[in-house]
Design a protein that fits this description.
The protein is of the alpha/beta class. About 25% of the residues lie in helices and about 15% in strands. The mean pLDDT is about 90.
Length: about 280
């Protein structure tokens, strides 16, 4: 026996803890804050806003364990996007939803992610059977269609968070809407084809946004900080939702360069003229 022991060799092996609770609850466990582990989250739009939101929510556990993170966007990443998108040149000219899925899987282990290279207008059924919906399209027209379908469909029961950047980044905003609760919806704030109603306008009396033209397309320039600020605002709202304390539901965060009148974040009731959620 002594001879066997003297000829034995000891190897020290390193191990890594990739369990969801170890990875995704490390920064919040002491705060007694729940995570998105086991939740099904749909993110509509994987552009400048949606990309940062997806990475932030994945780090909260979206797509971990028995949960699922669903990404949808029909656009491709172009060189024009690189200045304010979370993804880089290695993913150029590929579908944003598909490559965002790849990037999250590269950064985090054992994720359950689905990607759809399609328009949400053709995949409205994805909004059913999830726990939370994030509208990061930043398009008033698309958000209106999402809002209308969300409110009218009996199969969709999850709350929805809309997020967008105003003008050239003077402020970022988010709206939490649960059709089971009497509160303002996306169409209350800004009916498609109309100006934002004065009581909801975060830049009342402000100047028109500066637009730019590049490669035969026009766009509204803003710094990457606006995309990151929007993702931070949405993440905070998601954390409040997990705690069951989503108030205020309509939130605005201003940049330092805005010196005009400021709109206070608040809970608004449905607008009496809203064609979607105002009911007799």
């Amino acid at each position: 026996r002594q001879k066997i022991l003297s000829q034995s060799k000891i190897f020290l092996l390193s191990s890594f803890n990739y369990t969801p609770h170890h990875i995704f609850e490390r920064n919040i466990k002491k705060l007694e804050q729940p995570s998105l582990i086991d939740k099904k989250v749909l993110i509509i739009g994987c552009g400048a806003i949606g990309g940062y939101i997806a990475l932030a929510l994945a780090r909260l556990g979206a797509g971990a364990n028995n949960g699922k993170l669903i990404l949808i966007d029909n656009d491709k990443l172009s060189s024009l996007n690189l200045g304010r998108h979370v993804l880089g040149k290695n993913y150029l000219y590929q579908n944003k939803a598909n490559v965002l899925k790849k990037e999250i899987e590269n950064q985090l282990p054992n994720m359950n992610i689905e990607a759809y290279p399609s328009s949400i207008l053709n995949k409205m059924g994805l909004m059913a059977d999830v726990d939370l919906i994030i509208d990061a399209t930043a398009s008033s027209a698309v958000s209106q269609r999402i809002n209308e379908n969300y409110d009218q469909s009996e199969k969709i029961t999850a709350p929805i968070i809309h997020a967008w950047i105003r003008n050239n980044g003077e402020c970022v905003q988010s709206l939490f809407y649960d059709k089971m609760v009497a509160s303002a919806c996306r169409s209350c704030i800004n009916k498609n084809g109309h100006h934002i109603r004065a009581e909801y306008d975060a830049l009342e009396g402000g100047v028109e946004p500066i637009t730019a033209i590049r490669a035969c397309t026009d766009f509204t320039p803003y710094a990457v900080s606006s995309s990151m600020s929007t993702a931070s605002l949405v993440t905070d709202m998601v954390l409040d939702w997990l705690k069951g304390e989503v108030s205020p539901r309509y939130r605005t965060r201003y940049s330092e360069k805005w010196h005009g009148k400021k709109l206070q974040s608040a809970d608004f009731l449905p607008h009496e003229d809203c064609h979607v959620c105002a009911r007799p």
